[in-house]
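Input.
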Amino acid sequence: IFNRFYQIDDNSEGIGIGLSLVKELVTLSHGTITVENTEVNTIAFKMSLPVLKTQFQPNEIAELNLKKPIENRDDIDLEGMARTIEVMDENLPIMLIVDDHQEILDLIDSIFKDSYQIVKAHDGEMGVSKAIELIPDIVISDVMMPTLNGFQLCETLKQDERTSHIPIILLTAKADEADSYIGLETGADEYLLKPFKTKALVSRVKNLIENRLKLRRRYSQEVILKPKDIAVTDYDKLFFEKVQNILETKLSEPTFTVEAFSEAIGMSRMQLHRKLKAFTGLSANEFIRSQRLQLAADLLQKGNPNISEVAYAVGFNDASYFAKCFKETFGCSPTTYASKF
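Output.
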């Protein structure tokens, strides 16, 4: 049980490295720790530590100057220390943390809670469910978990069109090169060893988010949708090919709304919104409008001077509203734009 990564079976919660580190610390302190069964499903740990200074070498002793006496517990204002309920800022990106150890969830939460909306999952299955439901901006997951491990979670999310674009960081106490290779093979964007330094984790998260923002800025300027160029993974490419096919057949219909779009693509409104937002920075509604305006610009370039005809051809049923939207996007009226070609 004091061995790293000990697991009774595949369906049980892993011990991780906690007890192994305890054993090492106790040994370094010239102490002992044992474990025994006391009754069914119950075990007891017994630990002994030397308290006499003579039992340690001089280089093992650190002197502490306690200038302030330890407070009496009765004097502590427990109510004042109570944690207030925090309201999520919906403008912040969403971070999903998946780990079967509460202390790790709380640690990562404390690191990122001011910059992200934090969502927690206690195992791989719950992690997959939360990722599909919320479409987070980034996922940080442990590898060794019961039911569904981190590799399986990563592979599942990377092979789902709804979640294939989400950057994933895998955390593990295993330093084996083979495990690192498996993590990257399943699509993980980063692989970090436990125990990790806060700086290292923050840096990796920052880099992944910044890279996604660069892609978003680039693709939000694209005049024509190019699935091959936009895609981060093969599943993203399939998604944008579907989007392109739907737009080619439905964009000219005034009744083509976000609801119709999400139904045609096989996603909920929220899933479609967050997927498009991740790549283009546009909501589903803004994306439809931008594609209509790009199509209108193409028609005007090809020599169609009738603004009303162009407006109706790209799905606008109000020529005045079309002209207003066109000017906001291209900086000039449709008539002026057409005269340039």
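The chain has three domains: 1-67, 94-212, 227-339.
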